[in-house]
């Protein structure tokens, strides 16, 4: 099995699960009120190297980062365009900053 395809398949599976969880979280949030903001120190945020400000990403430490990659132009971000804090499929039940970045960034088509 090609390691690149395997990694891609895992990411696609994780994205699907995260999307389902995000949908469930969004429905629950409608009943519970606004979602909390994701803190970069939370375990999942640390595991995915989430930054609230993409300008603070060290490109040497994170070689997949390229200037211009922001949560606001990532496929995983949902919610209303233009909002500073929006839901993300990767962090169910939390809001991420539109100018943020994580290592699972996927450019919107």
In the sheet with the most strands, the strands line up as 1-2
| Secondary-structure element string | HHEE
CATH topology: High-Potential Iron-Sulfur Protein, Chain A
Number of strand elements: 2
CATH class division: Few Secondary Structures
**Biggest sheet descriptor:** 2 strands, antiparallel
* CATH superfamily annotation: High potential iron-sulphur protein
User: Please, how many domains?
Assistant: 1
Percentage of residues in DSSP E strands? 5-15%
**Number of helical segments?**
2
Low-confidence blocks of residues: none
Terminal-residue CA separation: 27 Å
Question: What is the CATH architecture annotation?
Answer: Irregular
Task: Name the structural class.
Answer: mainly alpha
Rg result: 14 Å
Indicate the mean pLDDT.
87
* Cα shape: globular
Question: What does this protein look like?
Answer:
- The chain has 109 residues and is mostly helical.
- The chain has one domain (3-97): Irregular (High-Potential Iron-Sulfur Protein, Chain A), CATH 4.10.490.10.
- The chain is built from two helices and two strands; from the N terminus they run H-H-E-E.
- The protein has helices at residues 3-32, 43-47, and strands at residues 85-87, 95-97.
- It has a two-stranded antiparallel ribbon with strand order 1-2.
- The protein is globular.
Describe what is shown at a glance.
By secondary structure, the chain is mainly α. It is built from 2 helices and 2 strands, in the order ααββ.
Summarize the topology.
Elements: H1 3-32, H2 43-47, E1 85-87, E2 95-97
Antiparallel strand pairs: 1-2
């Amino acid at each position: 099995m090609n390691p690149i395809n395997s990694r891609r398949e895992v990411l696609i599976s994780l994205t699907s699960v995260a999307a389902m969880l995000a949908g469930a979280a969004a429905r629950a949030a409608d009943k519970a009120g606004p979602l909390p903001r994701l803190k970069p120190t939370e375990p999942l945020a640390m595991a995915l190297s989430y930054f609230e400000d993409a300008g603070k990403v060290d490109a040497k430490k994170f070689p997949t980062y390229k200037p211009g990659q922001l949560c606001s132009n990532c496929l995983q971000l949902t919610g209303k365009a233009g909002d500073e804090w929006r839901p993300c499929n990767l962090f169910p039940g939390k809001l991420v900053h539109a100018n943020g970045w994580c290592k699972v960034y996927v450019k919107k088509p």
